[in-house]
Amino acid sequence: MAGDPTTELTVSVVVPSIGRGVLAQVVGNALDQRAHEVVVVADARLDLVSDTLRQAGRLDDRRVQVIAGPGRGAGPARQSGVDAATGDIVLLLDDDVVPGPGLVDGHRAVHAEGAHRVVVGYMPVAAELVARSVTAVIYANDYEAECRTLDADPSRVLAQLWGGNVSLRRSDCALVPQAVATFADEPREDEEFGFRCLRAGLIGVFDRRLAAVHWHDRSVAAFLDLAGAQVRASRLLREQYPEWVGFDDPRIGLPARGRCVLWATTLPVIGPVLRASFVALARRLGAGAPSPARVHAVVLARAIAQVAAAR
User: Rounded CA gap, 56 and 32, in Å?
Assistant: First the structure.
């Protein structure tokens, strides 16, 4: 179809959702950009998801389909959406990733240029969140560093897959399921999916022109809990995919004083007390408006959580 100028590829947008506040905007923007259909998978609170779309006037659109998810995390929810999709291309958007102008057509165009592609778009964190949230600042910095890595080495797109704004041909979705039982409900499930795409012979493409706005925000407590969970998931990734590079040493980028604090939290007896005290302090500081001191405190607390989880 890509070589036939008389045939346009259709795009199904799949949105796994837990009912986040910008869901209606995600769906609305996709519909306004000539999406063939939008499949919303309510992986929790089907009533909330449906009410959110109904209040926005989107539930009556014949192109919108809301289905109940399996309740087992993002990967299985995406698979439910893929199974229900009918378009030539499946564009997977998180329910806090709002399409920017031309996103749907942009994904369509990249797939029209070649087959067997996994197309990854750009999704910087909303400036409004960065201005008010410490964890949004840290996530935004991490994300931009990742994008610079992909700009420098496009071959890393699938080996470091960052989900949320990703598309595949539906025929390729049949080759690579969104989730597998050996990596169920793990926080690095997008990276695990990327490795399976690599092994299936698919090609990763990162394109900054395919832009969306990521309304990513977490409490400091949730942010630190996730940091520990990601370390544990990393062990499983390394077992299944020895070629996985792994996450950076948590000490990288910390000032000398921060590295000393981190070392002290690993000591017997006093270490657990210091760790708990510093994490509690970081949670209080991180609840305020972003400042260099608050950001550094939460970054150090994340390193402490990562080192503790790795032990």
Answer: 14
pLDDT in tens, 168-200: 999 999 999 998 887 877 788 999 999 999 999
Pairing of strands 165-169, 89-93: antiparallel
Residues 118-144 have pLDDT tens digits of 999 999 999 999 999 999 999 999 999
pTM: 0.93
Q: CA-CA distances (angstroms) from residue 303 to 87, 160, 181, 283, 298?
A: 43, 20, 29, 14, 9
Q: Please, how many CA atoms are within 13 Å of residue 115, restricted to the half-sphere of its CB? A: 7
Q: What is the DSSP string of 105-158?
A: HHHHHHHHT-SSEEEEEE-PBPHHHHTT-HHHHHHHHHHHHHHHHHHH-GGGTT
Structure tokens at 245: 């590079």
Buried/exposed code over 87-102 (b: 16+ C-beta within 10 A; e: otherwise): bbbbbbbbbbbbbbee
Taking each helix axis as running N to C, give the angle between helix 256-264 and helix 270-286, from 0 to 180 degrees, rounded to the nearest 10.
Answer: 130
